Amino acid sequence: MPDNTPQSDIPAANEDKSLDQLLAEAQARIEEQKDARLRAMADAENARKRAQADVQAAHKYAVERMAESLLPVADSLGAALESKDVSGIELTSRQLKAALEKAGIQEINPAAGDKFDPNQHQAMSAVDAPGAEPNTIVAVMLKGYRLYERVLRPALVTVAKALEN
User: Fold this and answer.
1) Angle 101-103-109 (CA atoms, 0-180°, nearest 5)?
2) What is 11-50 written as a DSSP string?
3) 101, 99, 80, 98: which is closest to 89 by C-alpha?
4) Strand, helix or coil at 68?
5) Domain coordinates of the chain in residue numbers?
6) If 108 and its partner were Cys, which of 5, 19, 116, 144 is the partner (CB 3.0–4.6 Å)?
7) Strand partners of residue 126
């Protein structure tokens, strides 16, 4: 059977290294390159995963911290508005609401008669309420807030209980 190996690839017989030595060196280089490539791929994948997790965490929680710090301000401002003892509060209230909305924060402020939703409301008490359907909201004690779909704080409500016969 004829040898199809190109003659230029075979070292001359008078070279210092034997074919076995050349083969061993080439295999060692190949293994080193494979190892370096696998390490580089693993490093790149780990860096990608870390960066992706950092970005997700930053997006997810950056606004939430700000929102939680603003909620007491919104509550105090709402209480001052009810007492109407400070001028300019209405303007401040509108500005605060606009800032919260810009950050993706919406009020959870159910009306009397709305159905109780345990995902958005927290029942603080259940009362007899003639004329009201059971499990409907009778009064809102404290508004709730949500950041996009996530509830930051549920609305604290009083709920109508079923009347006993």
Assistant:
1) 40
2) PPTTSSS-HHHHHHHHHHHHHHHHHHHHHHHHHHHHHHHH
3) 80
4) helix
5) 17-103, 105-165
6) 144
7) 159
- Overall average pLDDT of the 30-34 stretch: 96
CA distance 158 to 138: 5
Question: Residue range 63-88: average pLDDT?
Answer: 76
CA distance 165 to 134: 13
Write the CATH number of the domain with boundaries 17-103: 3.90.20.20
* Cβ contacts of 114 within 8 Å, gap of 6 or more: 136, 137
Length of the chain: 165
d(CA 122, CA 80): 24
3-state SS class at 163: coil
- State the pLDDT at residue 92: 77
The one-letter amino acid code at 164 reads E
Q: Which residues on neighbouring strands pair with residue 127, listed in sequence order?
A: 160
Q: What are phi and psi of 158, to 5 degrees?
A: -105, 135
Question: What CATH number labels 105-165?
Answer: 2.30.22.10
